[in-house]
């Protein structure tokens, strides 16, 4: 039933907001999630830079960065600190999900297949096709809900990435321990390849695809501040995620989400931090592409 | 007939001394069966003309000359003969040495001129206290005593060697002349041929002193025998001899003394104090400046350069082979000679700390030419950085900073007299010889090295094997525990082991090494250095028996599985490392798929989004 209404909504590209929401802010992310994302940014950038320094050790620009950071011992230390941070937010996030479930008293089935779930479902495939149609001018922009399919991909990319890179990273960190468990010596070599290439995938993806999808796409350019501020204008929210807006409107849950505009100092701070992070990521990916194309074999 | 004549004479001349004639050599028959001489042969020809006994030396000389002409003629020009001709009172006559009626052949033990008796015969005049000794300008003191203590005297008097030299062996019996006389057998020019009458093969004994041919062709270049083996005192050992340097110093102590060579004024002043404190202080001037001649005035005129090979034959012949010697021979004025390094009159032993050839002074000495910004450093062959490189090397620091005189200086590797270019197969630093050269000090290392796969005795590789300097370099040689060395060794090994070095750099060890990690395992940390052996050799540090222990130096918890880590792994080799190869390609496919999909996604999104933005703006403008 819900699907039918969504189908209709896809046609409507402009939404008339009730007067009470105009100029107001919609609370999209709670503090916990925002802090976790902050942890992701900090650890990920650190891991990316200090990791690439080793992967591309024979490239002059990475050698320069290595010496800038204080040499391989410092970068090695930072890499491990960031790894610990990664494991921390991973655990915290699992804890967050479990807590949320008990707090909101939702079923596990709803958590996995519901409207707000991160788990891909049939609707995502429909939206994916619809999106490509929209790209090619063959249809309207799909009415995205709580999570778009690319956001779900981002989420599981991190989930998968942390698991894979994390596990292989532990093998590389404690090779003597893992081999003493009976694993053959070559798992260290295999771990190196997986760790390194998976990291290449993660950094390459985040610093290009994620950056574009979230920040650099023309309607958000140059940056979507919502992950820092937690809230966005109702107009922007309704336009970006029409289905979620509609569901919340119908359920009457929108009122509880009205918040004041975030303070100017907070926006300014978040913008400086955000731009620093974006710049760091972009520079890193440029160096990676340069190394891949011209130096690394 | 003659016999009767003798009987006739003896019937009246019954003195015992006359009777000895019958046993004399004159009374013997010669090969023709005739008697050598009869009474009248000596006493004026015929019995009728006998007038006076032959008393004066001059008369006896004339008598003897009738038969012994060559001897007499020699005698007449000799010192003794001249004295006889001048009727000098003490002049020795023929009779004085040979006797009169009792003349015996020199082979007869009873003869005065029998070899055993000659020292006594000559000594009857030439000894201290005689009237002759008072006349002579040459000291006659202790001649007999010295002789009897000499090797000649000892041979004759104690061992009864009748082939030993006696007075007349050197001072030819009939032609005795003062040594200043060029004709004298004991003149400096002739003494060698005098001594070689007996010491025929002396060249081979003196091969270190006299360079074979020199003895024959250029005897002036070598010292006279007596310079070392003093006359009358000749021993096997060489005694200090007192050729009077003050004769030379009469002129050469003048500070203004000079000569002109090629238009340049060259000082001939000699600081005798310098010489007297030198290693050569016991040598007289003429021992080095041999080429002096009595016919010149002064006697040292045009005596030319000193030839050190007189005594230091092996060093000089090494020098002549050396690069220094070659350029010197080619006429290069800059080429170093003996004096350039050792100095001249003030020459010092290398054990003397003030000597330029003292171990710690050698780098500076060689650096005078092979140093930075010397007159010669423009020539690239002089390697003008060599001294700086050396002084920063472990050897240089050991020698110059720590003052360890056992540390290698230039000459320890390049040899001191036989320096040759490294490209010369004879050179001590030629790649075939360098290991042995280093082994002079690093013998323990060499013992390991020669059992390693890098040594030609072990390896049958046709490729060039590394020597010490390929890994350690030559002048910039470093402490192996220094970071720079640990970094550069990777490149050094990589020069030959190209592939494994490449794959090493693909691993963690290699990558962090590039980033400056000195402590991370380098080639030699695992493979060993001088003891390097292939893995299949049980002695190898990487053999199954040793590998865990080798890894444990860095990874204390190393275990059997852990050492299975592929240290030279590459994911490019499917046959050797299939797991790595397929892992890599699986990952690559994952990456390519993801990026292709989302790349396309983004590329399509961008124009659509831009178009919508434009539309919206137009709408809001209209609205």
Structure write-up:
The complex is a heterodimer of chains A (297) and B (623). Chain A is mostly helical and 297 residues long. Chain A has a single domain, classed as Up-down Bundle (Fumarate Reductase Cytochrome B subunit). In chain A, 71% of the residues lie in helices and 3% in strands. Chain A has 13 helices and 3 strands. Chain A has a 3-stranded antiparallel beta sheet with strand order 2-1-3. The radius of gyration of chain A is 21 Å and the shape is globular. Mean pLDDT of chain A is 90; it is low at 1-12. Chain B has 623 residues and is mainly alpha-helical. Among the domains of chain B are: 188-311, no CATH class; 431-558, no CATH class; 571-623. Chain B has helices at 2-12, 16-19, 39-42, 57-65, 69-77, 79-85, 94-98, 118-123, 131-135, 143-149, 151-158, 167-170, 191-195, 202-205, 213-217, 225-228, 245-252, 272-276, 285-288, 313-321, 323-329, 338-342, 362-370, 386-392, 394-401, 410-414, 434-439, 443-449, 468-472, 483-494, 498-504, 508-514, 523-527, 547-552, 578-622, and strands spanning 258-261, 264-267. In chain B, strands 1-2 form a two-stranded antiparallel sheet. In chain B, helix 4 (57-65) packs antiparallel against helix 5 (69-77), helix 23 (362-370) packs antiparallel against helix 24 and helix 24 packs across helix 25. Chain B is elongated, with a radius of gyration of 45 Å. The model of chain B is unreliable at 208-212 and 236-243 (pLDDT under 50). Chains A and B meet through helix 2, helix 3, helix 4, helix 6 and helix 8 of A and helix 32 and helix 35 of B.
């Amino acid at each position: 039933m819900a699907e039918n209404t969504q189908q209709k909504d896809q046609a409507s590209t402009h939404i008339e907001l009730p007067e009470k929401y105009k100029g107001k802010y919609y609370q999209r992310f709670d503090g916990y999630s925002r802090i976790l994302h902050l942890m992701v940014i900090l650890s990920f950038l650190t891991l990316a830079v200090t990791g690439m320094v080793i992967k591309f050790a024979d490239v002059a620009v990475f050698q320069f960065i290595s010496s800038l950071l204080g040499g391989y011992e410092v970068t090695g230390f930072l890499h491990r600190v960031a790894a610990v941070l990664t494991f921390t937010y991973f655990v915290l996030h699992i804890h967050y999900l479990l807590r949320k479930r008990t707090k909101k008293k939702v079923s596990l089935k709803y958590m996995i297949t519901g409207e707000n779930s991160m788990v891909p479902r049939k609707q995502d495939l429909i939206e994916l096709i619809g999106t490509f149609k929209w790209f090619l001018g063959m249809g309207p922009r799909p009415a995205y809900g709580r999570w778009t399919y690319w956001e779900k991909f981002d989420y599981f990319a991190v989930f998968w990435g942390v698991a894979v890179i994390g596990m292989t990273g532990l093998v590389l960190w404690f090779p003597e321990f893992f081999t003493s468990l009976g694993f053959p010596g070559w798992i260290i070599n295999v771990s190196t390849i997986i760790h390194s290439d998976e990291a290449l995938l993660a950094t390459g993806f985040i610093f290009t695809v994620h950056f574009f999808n979230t920040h650099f796409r023309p309607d958000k350019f140059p940056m979507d501040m919502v992950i820092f501020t937690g809230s966005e204008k109702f107009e922007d929210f309704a336009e970006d995620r029409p289905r979620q807006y509609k569901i919340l409107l119908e359920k009457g849950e929108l009122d509880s989400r009205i918040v004041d505009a975030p303070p100017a100092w907070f926006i300014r701070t978040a913008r400086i931090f955000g731009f620093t992070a974006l710049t760091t990521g972009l520079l890193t990916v440029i160096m990676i592409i340069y190394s891949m194309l011209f130096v690394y074999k | 007939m003659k016999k009767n004549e003798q009987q006739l004479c003896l019937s009246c001349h019954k003195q015992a001394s006359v009777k000895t004639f019958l046993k004399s050599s004159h009374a013997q028959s010669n090969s023709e069966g005739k008697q050598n001489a009869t009474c009248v042969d000596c006493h004026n020809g015929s019995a009728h003309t006998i007038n006076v006994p032959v008393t004066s030396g001059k008369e006896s000389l004339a008598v003897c000359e009738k038969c012994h002409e060559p001897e007499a003629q020699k005698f007449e020009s000799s010192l003794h003969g001249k004295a006889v001709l001048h009727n000098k009172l003490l002049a020795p006559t023929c009779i004085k040495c040979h006797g009169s009626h009792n003349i015996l052949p020199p082979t007869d033990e009873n003869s005065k001129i029998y070899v055993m008796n000659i020292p006594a015969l000559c000594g009857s005049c030439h000894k201290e206290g005689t009237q002759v000794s008072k006349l002579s300008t040459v000291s006659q003191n202790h001649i007999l005593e010295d002789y009897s203590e000499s090797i000649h005297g000892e041979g004759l008097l104690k061992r009864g060697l009748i082939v030993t030299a006696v007075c007349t062996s050197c001072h030819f019996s009939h032609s005795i002349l003062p040594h200043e006389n060029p004709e004298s057998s004991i003149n400096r020019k002739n003494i060698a041929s005098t001594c070689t009458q007996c010491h025929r093969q002396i060249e081979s004994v003196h091969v270190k002193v006299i360079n074979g041919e020199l003895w024959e062709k250029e005897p002036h270049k070598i010292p006279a025998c007596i310079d070392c083996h003093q006359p009358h005192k000749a021993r096997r050992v060489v005694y200090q001899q007192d050729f009077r340097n003050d004769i030379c110093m009469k002129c050469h102590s003048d500070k203004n003394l000079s000569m002109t060579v090629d238009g340049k004024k060259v000082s001939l002043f000699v600081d005798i104090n310098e010489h007297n404190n030198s290693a050569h202080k016991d040598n007289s001037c003429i021992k080095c400046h041999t080429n002096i001649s009595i016919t010149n005035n002064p006697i040292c005129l045009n005596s030319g350069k000193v030839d050190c090979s007189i005594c230091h034959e092996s060093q000089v012949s090494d020098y002549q082979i050396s690069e220094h010697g070659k350029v010197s021979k080619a006429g290069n004025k800059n080429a170093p000679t003996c004096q350039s390094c050792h100095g001249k009159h003030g020459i010092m032993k290398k054990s003397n700390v003030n000597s330029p050839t003292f171990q710690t002074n050698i780098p500076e000495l060689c650096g005078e030419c092979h140093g930075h910004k010397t007159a010669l450093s423009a020539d690239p062959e002089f390697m003008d950085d060599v001294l700086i490189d050396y002084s920063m090397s472990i050897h240089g620091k050991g020698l110059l900073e720590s003052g360890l005189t056992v540390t290698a200086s230039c000459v320890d590797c390049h040899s001191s007299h036989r320096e040759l270019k490294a490209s010369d197969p004879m050179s001590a630093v030629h790649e075939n010889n360098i290991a042995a050269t280093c082994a002079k000090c690093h013998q323990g290392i060499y013992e390991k090295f020669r059992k390693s796969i890098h040594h030609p005795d072990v390896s049958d590789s046709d490729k060039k094997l590394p020597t010490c300097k390929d890994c350690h370099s030559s002048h910039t040689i470093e402490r192996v525990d220094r970071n720079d060395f640990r970094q550069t060794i990777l490149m050094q090994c990589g020069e030959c082991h190209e592939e494994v070095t490449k794959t090493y750099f693909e691993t963690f060890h290699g990558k962090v090494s590039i980033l400056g990690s000195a402590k991370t395992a380098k080639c030699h940390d695992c493979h060993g250095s001088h003891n390097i052996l292939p893995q299949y050799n049980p002695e190898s540090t990487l053999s199954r028996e040793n590998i865990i222990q080798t890894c444990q130096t860095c990874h204390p918890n190393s275990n059997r599985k852990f050492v299975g880590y592929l240290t030279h792994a590459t994911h490019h080799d499917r046959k050797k490392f299939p797991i790595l190869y397929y892992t890599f390609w699986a990952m690559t496919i994952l990456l390519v798929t993801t990026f292709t999909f989302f790349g396309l996604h983004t590329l399509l999104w961008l124009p659509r989004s831009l178009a919508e933005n434009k539309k919206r703006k137009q709408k809001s403008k209209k609205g």
